[in-house]
Structures are given as structure tokens and as C-alpha cells.
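Ticket reopened. Same input as before:
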Amino acid sequence: QKEVEQDPGPLSVPEGAIVSLNCTYSNSAFQYFMWYRQYSRKGPELLMYTYSSGNKEDGRFTAQVDKSSKYISLFIRDSQPSDSATYLCAPYSGGYNKLIFGAGTRLAVHP
Amino acid sequence: KAGVTQTPRYLIKTRGQQVTLSCSPISGHRSVSWYQQTPGQGLQFLFEYFSETQRNKGNFPGRFSGRQFSNSRSEMNVSTLELGDSALYLCASSWNSGTGKGAQYFGPGTRLLVL
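Engineering reply: fixed in the latest deploy. New output:
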């Protein structure tokens, strides 16, 4: 079993839709949870960063962590074509900077 | 503040050659990590350096090595290149000293093609 599981998609939605991206993980030591966005042929860009369980909102983006079920979610409201990218979850135990990435979900938002 | 920079951006090599990639972290960041990204394996951790010391290493063969300089700039080297080494090599920097939050900021990557 992989430490982090993420459906690679692709996920195709119309502009304005609410998007839900999810990951599951197996390591209880993970305390920090990051979401990265990666556009084609670019490096990953840090999108959201949460600690422990709970929700965090930043504009149209909401990150949700449920440590009891080891489930991570990223919601995108009012999705835009510019949101078309690959979204990677990366839980982290707080050790020496070793991020474990999910496979990434490819999202396409069409006008 | 300038972001993470990586050079070169693109590289073509042949099997058996060696290659050196360079990374300059965000000013003030002392930790530099390297990752390999391929379509089949995704993003995989190579190693992490802090204050010129390697603190963590992923499951890659000894052909992959790295170092960090006193100004926090880092290089990674791959010797005896194989076709399977073709990938996007990403560098990430963070302020983290190993005890905390570790938000990492990535550079644009070096795309390596081995023929």
C-alpha cells in the first residue's frame, strides 16, 4: 500500500463548478498537510498548508483534514479555466523535509 | 524576494555520461531538497541538505549524489546516466531547521533527457 493515495483523474468540470480533490494516507505520524498546484511544464506551487485536523480557507480554496479517517480534501469553489492544472497532496510528518506526494489529480476546467 | 532558481532548465545527455544540476534557494532558506518527477513514479524524494549536511536520503542508487555550499546553493550529480534517469528534477527550499512546519517552495525544474 502506498503511503499516499490520490486518484490521478483526469477530472473535467465546467467553469463555475465546485471541485473536490481527495487523498488518503496511511502514516499516522503525518501532522502537516500541503496541497501543491502544478501547471504543465512548471514546478509545483504551494497552494495550501494545514496543520492537524480541521479546515482552512483561502479565497476560493478550502483544505480539509480528517486525521481520524486519514483523509485530505481540497475544495475549489467557482472553478475557473485558470485552475486547470495537476493538484498534488503532500502530507508531512515534520521530519527533515521529506514530502511524500500523491500521484496528483489532473483537473481540466472548461469554459 | 526571488524564488528558487534552477540551472540549466533543459539538458540532453547520452547514456553513461554524468550530469550536474544547480539550485539556488530563496534568500534566507537554509534547507534544500531534491525530487525526481516522472510520469510513471510521480514526485519522489532524492535527498535534503541543511547547512551543508545531508540530513535525509530517498531510495535512489548511489549514482545520485548532492552537496550544499556555505551560501545554501546546492548541486546534484548523476553519474553513469541511464535511460530511466530521464525526468524533471526539482529543487525545493525551505527555512525549516528540521523541527517545524517545512513549507517547501519549488523551482521550475531541470528537464533531463537521456538518449
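Strands of chain A lie at 4-6, 11-14, 19-25, 32-38, 45-51, 54-58, 61-66, 71-76, 85-92, 105-110. The first strand of chain A starts at residue 4 and ends at 6. Please confirm and we'll close it.
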